[in-house]
Amino acid sequence: xxxxxxxxxTHVLADLSRVASELLTNPAAxxxxxxxxxxxxxxxxxxxxxxxxxxxxxxxxxxxxxxxxISIHTWPEAGFAAADIFMCGDCDPLAALAVLRERxxxxxxxxxxxxxxxxx
Length: 120
Description:
- This protein has 120 residues and is an alpha+beta fold.
- The protein has a single domain (21-117), classed as S-adenosylmethionine decarboxylase (4-Layer Sandwich).
- 22% of the residues lie in helices and 43% in strands.
- It has helices at 27-40, 93-104; strands at 8-17, 45-52, 59-65, 68-75, 80-88, 108-117.
- The protein has a 6-stranded antiparallel sheet, covered by helices on one side.
- Helix 1 runs antiparallel to helix 2.
- 29% of the residues are buried.
């Protein structure tokens, strides 16, 4: 007997520009921020890991979710952050993005949204 499985989710890619550089260097602050964003989206947090590239340098990190993930990579010298929010089920990745935008206050934000679906 074969099982029918339909995978679906929404993948949001956001490029946040003209962000104050001091907001883009603290891995602990990003851990807290992405966790807050995940909860705002209705997601279930499993684990997180963040890394700083040195004092005053960028941060990379990910929050693993039961519904997929939120990740970010920052370039403080350019005032830029790239966020990747992928969620399935009833979660709202745009709610997560709203939290990031509210806290980081980018001068510009380019968003691409892709519906991810299983193809037979």
